[in-house]
């Protein structure tokens, strides 16, 4: 499941909306919406996220959050390490090999570390 898919499912359930009803309201199939929630489809485009926000009556910060999650939610990531250090290439490859074996707490710690480094301008 992607961050976008998880949040979309949460928003839908909070509002008591069945998947098939939301899909119909958005003009997509229930299968597509389910695949999007489960991370089996690529990230949605900006226009579709906007349609979701309008359907769910989401505005301002919550809409921006949903759009940001969509940008971070491509289920098949490609990392281009050309021009980076050998260590950066090794990191990308080792992460790709081992990410499915990482426990949720380790993933949270790694994300927190990346967030701290981004805050430092690094």
Keywords:
122 residues; mainly alpha; 434 Repressor (Amino-terminal Domain); 7 helices
Provide an overview of this structure.
The protein has 122 residues and is mainly alpha-helical. It folds into two domains: 3-71, lambda repressor-like DNA-binding domains (434 Repressor (Amino-terminal Domain), Orthogonal Bundle), CATH 1.10.260; 86-119. Helices cover 66% and strands 0% of the residues. The chain contains seven helices and no strands. The mean pLDDT is 92.
Class by helix and strand content?
mainly alpha
User: What is the rounded distance between the termini?
Assistant: 29 Å
Compute the number of structural domains: 2
What general outline do the C-alpha atoms trace?
elongated
CATH architecture of the largest domain: Orthogonal Bundle
Outline the biggest β-sheet: none
Q: Return the string of H and E elements.
A: HHHHHHH
Q: State the share of residues found in helices, binned by percent.
A: 55-70%
Task: Work out the helix count.
Answer: 7
Catalogue the unreliable spans.
none
Helices, strands, pairings?
Blueprint: H1 3-14, H2 19-26, H3 30-38, H4 46-56, H5 60-71, H6 86-98, H7 104-119
In short:
The protein has 7 helices and no strands. The protein is mostly helical and 122 residues long. The model has no long low-confidence stretch (mean pLDDT 92).
